[in-house]
Amino acid sequence: MTRVVLSETQRDEIARGRFVRIGHGFDSLLIGRVGGGWRAYTNVCRHRALPLDLGARSPMSDDGRYLLCSQHGALYRLEDGKCVIGPCAGESLATVAVSEDGEALLVGSISEQSK
Description:
1 helix; 7% helix; three-stranded antiparallel beta sheet
């Protein structure tokens, strides 16, 4: 597992119910809280292997209810990463294990069940 320390800005975004990007480009993750628990997904659209937030300020829909692919408009549920609207409807983002470790997060590897 990798230890990740969130910036104050990232913590504020997550506290407001938003997901944030950790890392850069094609190796990044999207991390947030849903129902009091942590969720993390690879930042890769299931339709085309591009970062969901490529060219966008945020990886989320304007209303904050979904993760949004800025290239194709696909919408993914926050609680399980499943695409509900778009060219990849029914497919899910790959999940990544995440837990709290004091002031940091422990981030694991991609879940095999999500591939």
